[in-house]
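Moderator note: this is an archived Q&A kept for reference. The question asked for a predicted structure of one protein chain; the sequence and the answer are reproduced below.
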Amino acid sequence: MRVLGVDPGLTRCGLGVVDGVPGRASMVAVGVVRTPATDDLGPRLVALEEQVEAWLDLHRPDAVAVERVFAQANVRTVMGTAQAGAVAVVCAARRGLPVALHTPSEVKAAVTGSGRADKAQVGAMVTRLLRLDAPPRPADAADALALALCHLWRGPSLARLAAAARAGGR
């Protein structure tokens, strides 16, 4: 199964693609889409959409995993994260791909064993699990891979059924 993980953000949006089965995975690609904070919202969302679409075209995932927005004191940050996440959901839905939202603590628990792990622990475990030479940088890239791993290992059975149905098409 191939999963595109999306760590949404307007300034930095992490994207990571992982192939595998529960317990065993390999990295296909990782990157970060950046948009200038000085630009208007509309062009930033369009730039993000163009990049997500390009990744979907290039990597043809079976499912998309997006970090679920969580409440925090900084409403502006939450809004940007929610808007960026919605772009990824729309791009996947347009193609009929299954989309799952995973909470940060769910992702941390899936890759480190603790829902309270810090960014360094997540990066270290992503590096280890995917047999990488170094943690992906910035942390948004490692988080996107962690989302893909979480979904690969804990994702809904619907995603697995979709992957099996599409297996002959790759």
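Archived answer notes: Residues 157-163 have pLDDT under 50 and may be disordered.
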